[in-house]
Amino acid sequence: MTVISRNPADPADVLHQAPAPGAFAVADAVERARAAQPGWADGGAAARSAALGAVATAVEAAAGELAALAVREVGKPLAEARAEVARTVAIWRYYAQAPYEPTGAVHDTATGPGLLLTRRRPHGVAGLITPWNFPFAIPAWKAAPALATGNCVVLKPAPEATACALRLAELVRQALPEGVFTVVPGGATEGGALVSAADAVSFTGSSGVGAAVVRSATARGIPVQAEMGGLNAAIVLPDADIALAAAHIAGSVAGYAGQKCTAASRVVAVGAALDPLREALAEALRAVPVGDPAEPGTVCGPLITEAARDDVASAWHGLSVLAGGTVPDRPGWYAAPTLVEKAAPGHRLLREEVFGPVAALLPARDLDHAVRITNAARHGLVTSVHTAGLDAVLHGLDRLDTGMIRINAPTTGVDFHLPFGGAKASSYGPREQGRAALDFYTSSRTYTLAPARAS
């Protein structure tokens, strides 16, 4: 296999092209990381904290370069690319404090003298498999807590984001000892080899690949977490500010061409909200700036590949199109932000995550009906609810089978200091980010300390 990464806005622009290193290269990287891990873990909290802080400083110093690279390699609009790099800096700084967190607790024994201790210890080598759509932030929110807790890291990025991963590795390795952080480019062969060799695995990507990763890791008995996308809904109640709701939803449908696991792809209009929302959302989507991701005003850039563009274009075929539904005649892999309605219950837009700027408008009789529609999908990552009151929030939303609920806000957006994850087919294993990540990258041990002599 040859790893090739192209500019999706200008496919003739090739950023990276090289043979995949193969499974043995992955195994070698893991062994080198395993050899480096004891020294990294035993170096102490201050050393790990200083190293992660130095990574943050290095990323911040290269912010302009990294944002431009994300624009060029993965087609991320410039404003979003800059925001992602800023978030990446914040993630490294947040976890730079984690080495000082308590690693356990002390308890009295139930009977007699002695002490009971709990202590969290690193697994060893964390194998990270990351997607192309957040080429800096997702590797950061996996690697930083793994490193903070004393693990070493081997990262296998998506082929489409290879150049971003290699540049990030150059910055990270400036601050870390040899072997502590390694990037191995490649595809399925390299990813499978990493799952077969690492001591813990964190994956973000498609549902099919994620399920295979989980099966392989659990067969080995190692910790695994998998984030596998969403088929996210935005519920709009009649009392909502329709114009504001439409603006939020349009941004979450079309921002970065809908290429986020948190993007909205189903819009559930409750009762009298349907007609005004139909008009407002169609207008908002038609107004979304589509174009060159390097232009500061662009919101919706290209799809990541030609196949992805064609797949998105096929998704609206045969449906009633309210906005968009076209493929611009221009270089690059673009699709217009699209809103459709009258999708039958079995339509793929209501069953599968279509990773692009397209959403289906669905009517609901009341909130209970809207919750049932939302829960009908096999994914359950995030739901947004748009309403002027608290009744729906307090009494209706606990029944939503989603990991995150956002009130009067887009489905998109991540708070890196809080747990991130979904329900059902969206996620497997412990949550990512925040303090939850520190638990995933460590195992808890219980020690019993009894007196050496009878009292």
Task: Provide the descriptors you would attach to this structure in a database record.
455 residues; alpha/beta; seven-stranded mixed β-sheet; 14 helices; 23% strand; globular
Description:
This protein is of the alpha/beta class and 455 residues long. The chain has 14 helices and 20 strands. It has helices at 23-42, 45-61, 63-74, 78-96, 137-148, 162-173, 188-197, 207-220, 242-254, 274-286, 306-315, 367-375, 391-395, 434-440, and strands spanning 2-7, 10-19, 104-108, 115-122, 125-130, 152-157, 181-183, 200-204, 224-227, 232-236, 264-270, 320-323, 338-341, 358-364, 379-380, 382-386, 404-407, 423-424, 427-428, 442-449. The chain has a seven-stranded mixed sheet. The protein has a six-stranded mixed sheet with strand order 7-6-5-8-9-19, with helices on both faces. Strand 6, helix 6 and strand 7 form a beta-alpha-beta unit. The longest helix is centred in the N-terminal third of the chain and has 20 residues, at 23-42. 53% of the residues are buried.
Taking strands numbered 1, 2, ... along the chain, how are they ordered across the largest sheet?
12-13-14-11-10-16-17
Structural class: alpha/beta
What does the radius of gyration come to?
A: 23 Å
What is the 3D form? globular
What number is the mean pLDDT?
Answer: 95
Strand composition percent? 15-25%
Report the end-to-end length measured between terminal Cα atoms: 68 Å
Our count of helices gives 14
Largest sheet: 7 strands, mixed
Roughly what percent helix?
25-40%
Write down how many β-strands occur, each being a DSSP E stretch of 2 or more residues: 20
Q: Which parts are unreliable, with pLDDT below 50 for 5 consecutive residues or more? A: none
